UniProtKB/TrEMBL annotation:
Protein's UniProt name: Fusaric acid resistance protein FusB
InterPro entries named among the record's database cross-references: PHBA_efflux_AaeB/fusaric-R
Key word Transferase present: no
Coiled coil, from the record: none
Organism of provenance: Acetobacter malorum DSM 14337
Pfam families cross-referenced by the UniProt entry: FUSC (PF04632)
Lineage: Bacteria, Pseudomonadati, Pseudomonadota, Alphaproteobacteria, Acetobacterales
């Protein structure tokens, strides 16, 4: 008899996606609680002072508050700066053209577009956590709300601007003061966070390089999350610096350590390319690689928990000495094989390649030693330390112009809707559109951000409908008002601490005070509520639609532009009079790599993987071009080897990849240079010359291998359309 299925049978339903609500962790609940308290205190002070729009003080608290003290202070500083800039620009705008509506709208839209343009060019990633960019967002935000409020009363623009500046300043001061009371041993925790960030990045790097040394030659190129982690942790160093107060360059050393790990990954790419050459594995290299792999597996645990780095550095020095000794032994054996007849060319070739691999492995260990030394200096600062390692900035002027134009056109179109329809609430509609454009136009994918923002807006409209039409009619004192608002605000804080709901929570927390609209002599009735909620909802829908219609995010075009920039960069590295620093090449390439890896949800996409591999390959070729330029500048190579290498560099100076010819000629010139240097190196008896030839030969082989392995990326004889590879 078949078993009857009961209603309660089966696995229990998973509610993990609601865990942020019913079982938040202590840090998330602490953030939500202190921010709710700060917002209510700011609101209470604004009501006590009988300010005209007290909701802006509570809104500013939610806009500035962050999970850590360093982030809150950094964001507060830049928000204050943006408020000052936006206030001045708004006063100038209203004073100059109060009677020219279209020109007024044009200048308003152009001003916010200019802020977006400047923000896109500032250092750091195009993310909501980049508070330098947030300064420009705050400028556009303040510029919009003051300028649009001043439309109806241009004679009182100064009073309006001072009132808005007072709200914002009050919110910043209250949030900064309250959050400081919740901090304990802040400096020690900041130092510990720096150390834990380094260990986290080191763990990913060592696992990736360990797989490479165990035989997985594509481990580095298939690990985009390692580069993303390093870049993200490097951007967070400045927050720890703020929390440490009067620091001794710990943050500079931490940034240098993370940058050294990025270069370490590039050394791994060189090693992976050399392993593609036939007759490369086995012998001394195989045994040494196994020892290094075992060392890397235990390394993260040995530098964690405040353990001294000196024993680790001693073991690392021993491995480096082994690599150098074995590489020198291979060179001696090769010299003996080359000077004693009969010469076994195959044996000499195997010995030469073993020496090159050991030399590259030694260079990789040297870079690891530099990272560990910088980490140790960040953990144990030294007196009279003047080390500096500034944040790098890689500007994209085309993206800055696109972001600026997109924001300006969207705001101007919203203004035209207001003017053409004479909608009584059109000014409110335009203000919300301007706020959204100021906040999200600097992001790479604003359409996705505004979609999440729309979800949060719908939630806050529903919550405020409940509050305005039922709950808020009852309280008659501030204490009861605060009690009614505490639970909705606490929910918004918990949602903000849950990463998948961050953008929706931002919309919820920002618009909750606006839709509640607390006043001393009034309440938000149903008419005011609907006249505010409807423009808000329509503004979110309009902004999201404009981001999808006008200059939408085009991943195919972004990938194609990045590919052309890489080809131009290789030509520039081979031809410019003063070559770039290797750190600049690595930083720019990793920045592009991370942008590519985050633009597509499907991380296993064939096209995306081809492009990611091509970006790393371009970085590897560029670094080896710089090494070849240094070797050629020394003039140690024999005349024939010098000419062959220079011929390859001449082809690289004209490398475009177009029409098949330039790619084929560059690859052929590289192959011919490798063949000539192999033949010339086998009969060279001068030891110093032979060492330089082996260095040049290693770089040429890496370039040759990368051009061959990533031909689809570098050969532009076909348009390399993504649909052809889908």
């Amino acid at each position: 008899m078949a078993r009857q299925t009961l209603l309660g049978d089966g696995p229990p339903r998973k509610l993990d996606h609601f865990r942020w609500l019913y079982a938040p962790d202590l840090l998330s609940f602490g953030y939500a609680l202190r921010t709710t308290i700060s917002a209510l205190i700011a609101l209470g002070i604004a009501l006590w002072w009988e300010l005209g729009s007290p909701q802006w003080a509570a809104l500013t608290v939610w806009m500035v508050a962050q999970g850590t003290r360093g982030k809150s202070i950094a964001k507060a500083r830049w928000h204050m700066f943006g408020m000052v800039v936006g206030t001045i620009c708004a006063i100038v705008l209203v004073a100059c053209m109060p009677q020219a509506p279209l020109l007024y709208l044009f200048c308003l839209a152009g001003g916010i577009g200019a802020f977006c343009f400047i923000g896109t060019l500032l250092p750091g990633p195009a993310a909501m956590t980049n508070y330098r960019i947030h300064g420009m967002r705050a400028s556009g935000f303040t510029y919009a709300i003051i300028a649009l409020d001043g439309v109806l009363a241009p004679d009182h623009i100064f009073e309006i601007a001072m009132a808005r500046a007072t709200y914002i300043t009050l919110g910043i001061v209250v949030e900064t003061t309250i959050s400081s009371l919740f901090q304990y041993r802040l400096e020690n925790r900041a130092r510990n966070r720096l150390a834990s960030n380094f260990v986290q990045a080191l763990d990913g790097v060592t696992r990736t390089l360990g797989r490479l040394l165990q035989g997985d030659r594509s481990s580095v190129s298939t690990s985009p999350e390692v580069f993303s982690t390093i870049l993200t942790l490097s951007d967070q160093v400045e927050f720890a610096e703020i929390e440490m107060g009067k620091h001794k360059h710990e943050g500079d050393h931490a940034r240098a350590a993370l940058a050294a790990m990025t270069v370490l990954m590039s050394r791994g790419l060189d090693l992976a390319a050399l392993l593609q050459v036939p007759d490369s594995e086995g012998g001394h290299y195989q045994q040494t690689a196994a020892e290094v792999s075992r060392f890397l597996q235990t390394l993260p645990g040995r530098v964690d928990q405040d353990q001294p780095v000196a024993p680790v550095l001693r073991d690392l020095d021993a491995l480096c000495a082994t690599c150098r000794q074995l590489a020198a032994s291979c060179l001696d054996e090769e010299m003996v094989a080359a000077t004693h007849t009969p010469v076994d060319l195959r044996e000499e070739r195997v010995i030469s390649r073993q020496g090159q691999l050991l030399h590259k492995l030694g260079e990789m260990m040297d870079e690891l030693r530099l990272a560990l030394e910088q980490f140790d200096m960040s953990r144990t600062p030294q007196p009279h330390d003047h080390f500096r390692y500034a944040m790098r900035s890689y500007r994209d002027w085309r993206m800055a112009f696109t972001n600026s134009l997109r924001a300006s056109v969207t705001i101007f179109c919203s203004g035209l809707i207001w003017v053409a329809t004479a909608w009584p609430d059109g000014l409110t509609f335009m203000m919300f559109v301007s706020i959204v454009c100021a906040l999200f136009s600097t992001l790479e994918q604003p359409a996705l951000a505004t979609k999440a923002f729309l979800h949060g807006t719908i939630c806050v409209i529903g919550m405020c409908g409940l509050l305005d039409l039922w709950v808020m009619a009852q309280p008659t004192t501030y204490e009861m008002l605060a009690m009614c608002l505490s639970i909705p605000m606490l929910l918004g804080g918990l949602a903000f601490a849950y990463v998948p709901l961050v953008l929706a929570a931002v919309a919820y927390n920002l618009f909750l005070p606006i839709l509640v609209g607390p006043l001393n002599q009034g309440r938000m009735d149903e008419v005011m509520y609907f006249n505010t909620a409807l423009p808000l909802l329509l503004a979110m829908v309009f902004a999201m639609w404009m981001y999808r219609v006008f200059l939408p995010f085009d991943p195919d075009g972004l990938r194609w532009d990045m590919r052309l920039n890489i080809l131009r960069g290789l030509r520039r590295l081979a031809s410019q009079r003063v070559p770039e620093l290797p750190s600049e090449v690595v930083g720019r390439s990793v920045d592009g790599f991370v942008r590519l890896s985050t633009m597509t949800p499907d991380k296993k996409s064939f096209v995306l993987n081809r492009y990611l591999s091509g970006v790393l390959s371009g970085m590897t070729i560029g670094l080896n071009v710089l090494r070849l330029r240094a070797i050629l500048a020394q003039g140690v190579l024999p005349p024939g080897a010098q000419r062959a290498t220079q011929a390859m560099m001449n082809r690289m100076q004209r490398f475009t990849g177009r029409y098949g010819g330039q790619y084929g000629r560059t690859a052929r010139a590289t192959h011919l240079a490798v063949q000539y240097l192999v033949q010339r190196e086998q009969v060279e008896t001068n030891l110093s010359v032979r060492v330089e030839m082996l260095r040049a030969l290693a770089s040429l082989r890496v370039i040759e291998t990368e051009l061959e392995q990533n031909r689809d990326f570098f050969d532009a004889s076909s348009p390399y359309l993504d649909k052809a590879f889908s």
